[in-house]
Design brief:
Radius of gyration: 22 Å
Distance between the termini: 21 Å
Strand content: 5-15%
Number of helices: 20
CATH superfamily of the largest domain: Glycogen Phosphorylase B
Number of domains: 2
Keywords: Glycosyltransferase, Transferase
Strand order of the largest sheet: 3-2-1-4-5-8-11
Protein name: Glycosyltransferase
Family: Belongs to the UDP-glycosyltransferase family.
Pfam family, one: UDPGT
Structural class: alpha/beta
GO molecular function: UDP-glucosyltransferase activity
Shape: globular
Number of strands: 17
Length: about 500
């Protein structure tokens, strides 16, 4: 009988998809995989529910999916911290309320039948459940090692009486293995009052990752982040049941990204944007896309600035546009399927004037396929780590436009450490002007500096392929993780 790995993914598209790539790797190595799911309908995120449906449908013959029972939830306002309703508090509360369901599910499996439990790094409290059941537990971080290193070190950075991260503003934080990281670039939850619920919850999750996990799987590869990998290898962790023990081991197993043409039922009819790209010269098109959650939707004013900048740049473009968010009512979740009115949002005559060299697509394109197309020459991205990894694997230089979560930290690492991107500065003032859009597009597409970006990202593309190949660093790290899980299982069964 195959050894069974239980995966407990996060409840967001950017957390869920990489873990499904990890599931594929485990299946390829001969493990049985069961995925425990929180009912997507509970979270009221349309994009997430649609993604889960697609993945379950395409992988159900190779992977077992188990929907956890729904639990009673409090009114949405119960997570209000005095400064608004924070996504993180609701997320953590939802996961916490499902811990009893995870406990019952693990107990329902055959004795010693769970080889290991792998949870999303935001669902780390479930590892306490695994520990009580004597099941080896690991955390999977879907972002990069650098941002995760910042996150894990936060409790030791700020002592009692020190200025808050919000008070530090743009003061750079000096952390082992990382370039100077402005305090203002941390997660938004950490820029709140240190006495607030959301700040304390964020710090608590950071501590629990080190306390509960037997190891961290990270969606990166070592040569992309060598300094932080070396720093973490020799770091000391927080206190775990008494004396200080080494930080749990890190396994850099990436890049775990979807392959071109790997989107199941969508492959049955080729997207029209790919046909349009077929008619464009090699490396001539600037691709603009800002994630799948809806949090990356730009204002009408910002859309107009982008349009003017693209038109004035003179370059070909493929631009994915979503309608601006007009309601913050938590009882009415934003519908990602709401089509934008391009005639109303974009400058008069823009579509007609640029129709020969540009195309605007509503809502969605097969991003991986676009990035791998020979015509794509640059990628304007919100710096979500999945998108960054997809850009690296495709060998496309990037323009950074961070919007939320850890994306500002990713931007620093991409531009200052990895050398694969340039930054759109205007995001810091809340509006990237048309002049900057035009100038940065020209820089990447025309200048010597843009050529150097391309050379570096091409080198990282080759390194990514080598890391995942036989004898590569990621392949070796994955084997090391499996060996550790096997050894822990042997210890359990022989005790």
């Amino acid at each position: 009988m195959n050894k069974t790995m239980v995966l407990y993914p996060g409840i967001a598209v950017s957390h869920f998809l990489p873990m499904m790539q990890l599931a594929d790797e485990l299946v390829a190595h001969g493990y049985a995989v069961t995925v425990a799911l929180i009912d997507p309908a509970v979270h009221q995120q349309i994009a997430f529910a649609a993604t889960v449906d697609r993945v379950v449908s395409s992988k159900k013959h190779a992977i077992r999916f188990h929907m956890l029972p729904r639990v009673e939830l409090p009114p949405a306002t119960s997570t209000d911290d005095g400064d608004g309703d924070f996504f993180l508090l609701g997320y953590l509360d939802l996961v916490r309320r499902h811990n009893a369901c995870v406990h019952d599910f693990l107990r329902s499996m055959p004795p010693r039948g769970v080889h290991a439990l792998i949870v999303d790094s935001l669902s780390v409290e479930a590892l306490d459940v695994a520990e009580r059941l004597d099941v080896p537990g690991y955390a999977f971080h879907t972002g990069n090692a650098g941002a995760f290193a910042v996150y894990l070190q936060l409790p030791s950075i700020r002592g009692e009486g020190d200025p808050s991260f919000r008070e530090l503003g743009d003061t750079p934080l000096e952390l082992p293995g990382l370039p100077p990281m402005p305090a203002s670039h941390l997660f938004a939850e950490l820029l709140e009052d240190p006495e607030s619920k959301v700040y304390k919850a964020t710090m608590d999750v950071s501590r629990k990752n080190s306390r509960y996990s037997n190891g961290f799987l990270v969606n990166t590869f070592e040569s992309l982040e060598p300094r932080v990998a070396n720093a973490l290898r020799g770091s000391r962790g927080h206190r775990r049941r008494g004396p200080a023990l080494p930080m749990p081991p890190f396994y850099y197993v990436g890049p775990l990204v979807e392959k071109a043409g790997e989107r199941g039922e969508r492959d049955e009819r080729r997207h029209e944007c790919l046909t349009w790209l077929d008619g464009q010269p090699d490396r001539s098109v600037v691709f603009l896309c800002f994630g799948s959650t809806g949090a990356g939707n730009h204002s009408a004013e910002q859309l107009r600035e982008i349009a003017v900048g693209l038109e004035n740049s003179g370059h070909r473009f493929l631009w994915v546009v979503r309608a601006p968010i007009v309601s913050d009512d938590p009882e009415k979740p934003y519908d990602l399927r709401a089509e934008p009115d391009l005639d109303a949002l974009l400058p008069a005559g823009f579509l007609e004037r640029t129709g020969r060299r540009g195309t605007v697509v509503k809502l969605w394109v097969p991003q991986v396929d676009v990035l791998h197309h020979r015509a794509t020459g640059a990628f304007v991205t919100h710096c979500g780590w999945n998108s960054v990894m997809e850009g690296v694997v495709a060998g496309v230089p990037m323009l950074c436009w961070p919007l939320y979560a850890e994306q500002k930290m990713n931007k620093v690492l991409m531009a200052a450490e990895m050398g694969i991107a340039v930054e759109m500065i205007g995001w810091q003032q809340g509006l990237v002007a048309a002049e900057e859009v035009e100038g940065k597009v020209r820089l990447v597409m025309e200048s010597e500096a843009g050529g150097e970006l391309r050379a570096r990202v091409t080198a990282h593309k080759e390194a990514a392929a080598a890391a995942r190949a036989d004898g590569g660093s990621s392949r070796a790290a994955f084997a090391e993780f499996l060996s550790d899980a096997d050894n822990r299982q042997f210890t359990r069964t022989s005790s």
